[in-house]
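Sequence and structure are kept together here, with a separate record for every protein. A complete record is shown below as an example:
=====
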Amino acid sequence: MIHEAMLWGPGEGKRTDCRLCAHRCNIAPGSWGVCGVRENRAGALVTHVYGEVIAAHVDPIEKKPFYHFLPGSSSFSIATPGCNFRCGFCQNWQISQLSAKDGETGGGQKLAPAEAVRIALDRGCRSISYTYTEPTIFFEYAYDIARLAKDAGLANTFVTNGFMTPEALETIRPFLDAANVDLKAFREETYKKVCKGRLQPVLDTIALMRRLGVWVEVTTLVVPGMNDSEAELGEIARFLAGVDPAIPWHLSRFHPDYEFTKEKPTPVAALDRAAELGRQAGLQFVYVGNVAGKGDLTLCPNCGHRLISRQGFWVEENAVAGGRCPSCGKAVPGVY
């Protein structure tokens, strides 16, 4: 559905200045932004994916992944087509790389914001997650749902590449409770070459989210030969610890996909070493994902007591009582 866009201003000669993501596209009449879903129509910016849902599922919140935000709950997870990155290792490329500009819709369904909230409530969800593709590029749709969701007592979460403007984050902040930011690397050249983006705006987003009171977890897909050096992983860990040592860091195992089909899966030993680097940097919670039996426990950073045990995406035991460790009484960072 074509819908009036948010976060833009008029430019010279009927061009439009998009202020949604850090590309900050200056779009000529009849042209599109990098995302392939926002078009300048006669000097006005419109989005082509409002209400055009390409994926909608009820997921455990741990699948996002969130390990410290309403653990054990379900989240109604939705996405529209498209993305503002072009990551060659994308694990959801079949839907994220669709472009309205090229007439690609992926055969989705129309879903009004009020209907999305109704489904979430009917399915017993505690939250709505904007995920699978990049929620920044379907901002108007996510914003309208999030407002209704908040009124209905539901939380809202973004699973995002973090490549948004401060204006976008500050606009959604009253309705955004948590975000998992995909920090893909710690090298500017990797972001430019592989993702067609930039690193600094992502780092700025992570820091701003914490300052604004959004609960933040971070995921790094560890790709052999791209971002798996001890030096780079150590830099990521130190950056996150410098923002807030309570930020959970999810280290995810890469599997060959999309344009990265010749690379091998990440060795488990490399993920274990990355987790150790995270702990050495002072991070209180480091998890290894996409590996059976790895990273399933949440331990109290003060006394080491087992707080939450998981099997895959399912919580088997949650001993966090009132947000505190039942053994030592220390507050456990997160939302419970």
